[in-house]
Amino acid sequence: MEVSSELGRLRRLHRLRALKPAAGLDFTSNDYLGLASHPALREAISSALDNDRVVGAGGSRLLRGHHEAHEELEEFAAKFFSVERALYFGSGFIANFALFTTLAGRHDAVVFDERIHASVKEGIHAAPAARYRAGHNDLQSFADEIARARNDGAREIFIAVESVYSMDGDLAPLQGLSALAEESGATLVVDEAHATGIFGQRGRGLGEMCQTPRWITLHTCGKALGVSGALVCAKSDVIEYLINKARPFIYSTAPPPFLARAVKRALELVDEEPWRRERVLKLAALAHSELNGEAQFAGSQIIPVIIGDDETALSVADGVQKQGFDVRAIRPPTIPEGTSRLRVAIHATHSEDVIKELAAAIRSARK
Questions:
Q1: What digits encode the pLDDT tens for the residues 198-212?
Q2: Strand (E) positions, the chain?
Q3: Which residues are catalytic?
């Protein structure tokens, strides 16, 4: 590929991306509960550095990089999410990549939602398993693709979905998908990245009340939990298999122990401060009401304001930013063609007045 010509093409299409520092009031990050700046997490990290006396893990988990902090986090997370075992990865992307490249073999199949996150798609494409794309949140489409995979001779079938979709904010029909998994003997892999800490009666995710032994769940730690990394939760034999076979786990330096301490403390805060998850969804409903038809709302803290073409979306985002709000434009290929948008992320730390001011800024910028 000719690098300069490709950059020129992206520039002409208004799709050239650039790193931009945070500025203005945050309506962009995934710090939904406001834990990233919580004093309890700073204290957990400071205490870990003093007591563990290391900054980096020093190696992969299988080569001296396995620390007491990792073990304590995984034991706590297994109890927290009511699963047999949990395994801590350095990022959600690596965890998803590891899951599908390790578990889905050449005689298997993966049926995935067409709007699944890029990390899952990369894992699926790198795996030797057959791939079947299902319509977004369409249970009949999933049933049809599962049947097609079985007819094609698939031994094991994995159903891959997000519980809350990162760019649309809508919720997966997990009960229906779980029933499909049971009926077909498939394994349901649920990425709870944008639901962890927020959804469920106790903030365990959207699948909190309907999880079965056929489920594998992934809970990222760098969004509502405010830290970094990801926890894969599953039956003991699945976790044991990942430890022994997942190349992204085996050949990666372990996450720093102080981050594991901080993630454990963040999980504790989910229970200690339930007002945060209650407030963020209440504020999201207010934001939708204030936008008065400007935005789609599917019940989550992620609210897309669909603009259409790329250039206009960038222009509207710039107008909102000039009024003091950090809201970014999202463009293809992250989302489908013709649906460029503002992605508004609501936080528990926002005030009702600020929500109203943001809505006014968006309306003003669109005009």
A1: 999 999 999 998 888
A2: 25-26, 85-89, 109-113, 130-134, 157-162, 187-191, 215-220, 230-234, 302-308, 325-326, 328-330, 340-345
A3: 166, 194, 223
